Amino acid sequence: MKMAFSNKWKCALLFAVTLSLIFTAACASKPKAETITPNQESQKNTSNLDSEKEVIQTEQGQENSGQTNRLDNTGKKIAFVTFANPDSQEWQKLAENAAFRVLKEAGYDTENTEFKIIKEDDATKVGEVTKEIMQFSPDLALVINSSIAIPLAKSLEGAPFPVVIPSCREAGVIDSSGVAAKNVTGVNFTPVDILAKAANLVSVVDPSIPKKTVFIIGKYAPAKYPKEMVESQLKAAGVELKAYEVPETEEELYSVIEKYENDPEIKWVIYVGNFVRLKDGTVGNLTDALTYLRENSKKINIALVDSMVKYGAFGGVTVDLTALAEQQTEIAVRLLNGEDIKSIKIEDPKKVYIYYNKMTADRIGVELPLQAIESAYRVYTDYEGNYIGN
């Protein structure tokens, strides 16, 4: 009898453990999400949403009459799609904080507005993110995460609420008059002439360099540069696109770099290549790739991400992603305040900067003329982040 009782409880325990494992696996596959209702901020688990709390933290002593109206419940619900781990990349945290700051300054924060905050980078989970948002039934969805913005915009197209993304042109959601075709609006991730600016950056340094280039972009890059768009922009700038490469893994990336390093036709390369799958299976902004680039390449590598110039690319034309998040969120505020989506022109980024790296220029034997230095927002002097300029 005692043996039977013991076995019975062993079975029960095993069943409970199995259920627990199934539940844990199911939870792990879901996007990280949290709903914050007005005045709930002080009740949140302090281990969650640390980066948001820096911006939306409840301030003490806000009962004075000058702030009473701002704290009245707006009755609005905002789905906020951000990065899976914004603390891991400085630009992600800055962009997220900028968006929350603009919302708060406009009177929309967790004290008076209900938020569904979703942290997800994996584009294969768009269906789950869409379901989370639709069940929340927001007044507006603000997607600052460029990694997932395009597929999510397509998934939410036609939803009964506006969706604001940072990559409208790239997502193909603009009509012929320059406004939202349906319910998706926001800003464009890249200027329509960004590749012409990249070509000009090279011409300023040395006008004799042939107008022929290669475009390398990692498969998992957050910004999308379709081949047709790249080819069209370069052609308009009088530049021939010899090849468009999309490496998926670290090994493929290094192989592509080596391939064009040995191509005498190519003197300069447009490089957005460090978003690839790493050896451990994860996807990341691969700093090692920049080390490899500066140790193995004598080409003029032009980046479209400023951190790549900081760590080794020759130069770059880059969008200020913090300013872009602000610009995008300002549009979200206009919609929350009742403006018609069809009255909002979709714009290019307002802040686009030129960068050079003097150490790389010296290493590959290219002199930076005064005109190049004067046109630059910033000139890095090493690979440690030191610079002259802004």
From TrEMBL:
PROSITE patterns: PROKAR_LIPOPROTEIN (PS51257). Pfam families: ABC_sub_bind. It comes from the Bacteria. InterPro entries: ABC_transpt-TYRBP-like, Peripla_BP_I. Coiled coil: none annotated. Residues 33-71 are annotated as: Disordered. Keywords: Signal. Residues 36-49, 57-71 have a biased composition (Polar residues). Residues 1-28 form the signal peptide. This is ABC transport system substrate-binding protein. It comes from Acetivibrio thermocellus AD2.
